[in-house]
Amino acid sequence: MSAAPLRPVGTPLAILRVMADPMRHAVLREMAEGSVPSVMVLAKRLGCHPDMMGRHLQRLQKAGLLIRVNPGKEADQRSKYYQIPSTFRQVAPDGTRVLDFGSVVLRFEPRKS
Predict the structure, then answer these.
(1) What is the pLDDT of residue 22?
(2) Domain 12-72+79-86 in this protein, CATH class
(3) What end-to-end distance do the CA atoms of the chain give, in Å?
(4) Please, what is the Cα angle at 105 between 103 and 29, to 5 degrees?
(5) Helix or strand or coil: residue 90?
(6) Which 8-state DSSP code applies to residue 108?
(7) Could you say which residues of the chain have pLDDT below 50?
(8) In the prediction, which pLDDT does 12 show?
(9) Taking the domains of the chain in order of start, what are their residue ranges?
């Protein structure tokens, strides 16, 4: 028996409420490529206190938009790591990063170098 497809928890409106916070939106943009940063690294990149970043990541996880992962033996085992599941991540032909959560879809333009 195969596992059920991963789906966000809650209604589209509940998911939008979680995403609507500017910092959580920035987190989704930052992680749309599939990166697995630690809470500390993500907090530093986005200019957020690590404790607050941890709360944002927990809210996104509770909504089913992120999963907690073990990045491997070489990573700092004291830190927590999260990732957007690959089932939600896509890349459009023009390079646009797409997060497709079913009833809610985010599109992030390619970053300019």
Answers:
(1) 96
(2) mainly alpha
(3) 45
(4) 140
(5) strand
(6) E
(7) 1-4
(8) 87
(9) 12-72+79-86
